[in-house]
Amino acid sequence: MKSIEIRQKAKEYIEQLSSEKLLVATDFLEYLLEKEDNDATEELLKISGFEQAFTKAQENVKQGKVTSVEQLKRKY
Fold first, then answer.
1. Residue 19 has pLDDT above 90, yes or no
2. What is d(CA 47, CA 44) in angstroms, rounded to the nearest whole number?
3. Cα(12)–Cα(42) distance, integer angstroms
4. How far apart are CA 13 and CA 69, in angstroms?
């Protein structure tokens, strides 16, 4: 089943739920999103040197050491 079909089916089910069950479904969907985010974060943290590179990038942004998208478009 394609993603768009799955989303449509989920919407149909949502429309049929009582308020109480809709709250449970919403909580479960929130849990899934948080878990997905946490899994992605864990995967990034497994990359050697990622934390240091990320920290350095954050420092560069704070110091204004960034290249705008417009500059990149002109360069490439």
1. yes
2. 5
3. 34
4. 42
Rounded Cα–Cα distance for residues 2 and 28 (Å): 22
The Cα 45–Cα 48 span in angstroms is 8
Interior angle at CA 60, CA 56 and CA 66, nearest 5? 130
Q: Is the pLDDT of residue 42 over 90?
A: yes
| Tokens encoding 9 | 């089916």
Rounded to a whole number, what is the distance in angstroms from the first to the last CA of the chain? Answer: 39
Q: Which pLDDT value is given to residue 29? A: 95
Amino acid at 34: E
One-letter amino acid at 39 equals D
